[in-house]
Design a protein that fits this description.
mainly beta, 20 strands, globular, three-stranded mixed sheet, Thrombin, subunit H, about 375 residues, about 40% strand
Length: about 375
């Protein structure tokens, strides 16, 4: 690793210990992707002697999720440690090396949400329980993995009474929790750390008020700290949902509620909605439920501004984190300002630590008077 950057790799069941030096010496490449949408994942690439006992040790879980092999990757930059991922192995790939005596072993895995996707629990009833209560009840099962829930109450939640419809579990725990999040415009993910062997299971709106992180500078000569950064504005992406409902045997349409609570503006000029989309499923639900669905659908198409770039961690001086905001400077009046970091991929090799990232925003022109570094 570069001076000032240190890697810690832990592999094993339950609370894994740090791997021995022989494993680190065989490790040639690490890739960790953290994203707001979907599960985060990792890929470890090892170059091994064909006689190495590590072949057997790594393949112990191949094709069998029990026992679960846990992987924790921690990177320390300038004395500050960050847990990049706490997950489990899911797959192994073996390919011949560049010489007859060696081969390449690639270990693939996902974050701890993977263990929530093994068992179908359809049919479990949740009488008089809000979506938040159901999520908390489900996450209780995963305390043994150090998973702690962070649940944000929805402003428009509607509880089914026992005299009406009793909600029931559908699919795996992961599928059902993500379904409950999607119906109110929320996201669900498991964020590793901040302590070792612990993670936060977050169910709520995107955290567009957390941050900002150290500014990303472009076109600023010696102050430039990213290798590349480009932007795209899709003025046609925003869609206005049309909600048709039936109440008391009468049909009608209802307006979509303000999506700002789940997707706050990060700029001054919000693009207009140039097209509408009829949501046929809305007729199956009550007005409150239909509004939730409409807010969720409107939020999906609101981020008309996207940015993609790469950076060298040593030059940037920090680890850029997904699921938080970051400021951009030097991109011009339309694109400067705050963005939500939607995805980050860490690429680590001997002597090199780079990140590729994607940013999103629902408006143009900065709404903050000054972007600080």
């Amino acid at each position: 690793m570069n001076k000032g950057i240190y890697l810690t790799l832990r592999i094993g069941p339950d609370k894994p210990e740090t791997v021995p030096k022989v494993v680190l010496d065989a490790l040639t490449d690490i890739q960790v992707t953290t994203t707001t949408q979907g599960q985060s994942g990792f890929q470890l690439t090892f170059t091994l002697s064909n006689r190495s006992p590590l072949h057997t040790q790594f393949l112990i879980s191949r094709g069998n999720p029990i026992p679960i092999v846990r992987v924790i990757i921690v990177v320390t930059v300038k004395g500050k440690s960050e847990v990049l991922i706490d997950g489990v192995m899911t797959n192994h790939e073996m390919t011949p090396g560049t010489d007859p005596g060696h081969s390449t072993l690639t270990v693939i895995g996902e974050d701890l949400s993977r263990v929530m996707d093994y068992v179908d629990s359809s049919g479990i009833p949740y009488p008089d329980m809000s979506a938040e209560a159901r999520v908390e009840n489900i996450l209780e099962k995963y305390k043994a993995f150090g998973v702690k829930p962070e649940i944000i109450s929805s402003k428009l939640e509607e509880v089914k009474s026992q005299t009406n419809e009793i909600p029931s579990h559908k699919g795996t725990d992961l599928a059902y929790i993500k379904h409950l999040a999607a119906t109110v415009g929320y996201v669900f993910y498991i964020d590793p750390g901040p302590k070792l062997y612990s993670s936060i299971a977050y169910w709520g709106p995107q955290k567009k008020s957390v941050g900002p992180q150290k500014a990303l500078n472009i076109n600023m000569d010696a102050h430039t700290n990213v290798e590349s950064l480009s932007f795209n504005f899709d003025s046609q992406s925003r869609t206005q949902p049309e909600l048709l409902i039936k109440e008391n045997k009468k049909s009608g349409s209802i307006p979509v509620a303000d999506i700002t609570p789940i997707n706050p503006l990060l700029g001054l000029i919000e693009p207009a909605s140039n097209k509408s989309e009829r949501i046929s499923e809305a007729s199956k639900f009550s007005p409150i439920e239909a509004k939730l669905i409409g807010m969720a659908e409107a939020s999906k198409s609101a981020d008309a501004v996207t940015g993609n770039g790469t950076l060298n961690v040593m030059r940037y001086g920090h680890i850029l984190k997904a699921r938080q905001t970051v400021a951009v400077r030097g991109a011009g009046k339309a694109f400067d300002g705050l963005y939500y970091v939607n995805q980050v991929t860490h690429n680590i090799k001997h002597g090199q630590y780079k990140q590729s990232f994607s940013l999103t925003r629902n408006s143009l022109v900065s709404n903050v008077p000054r972007v600080v570094s």
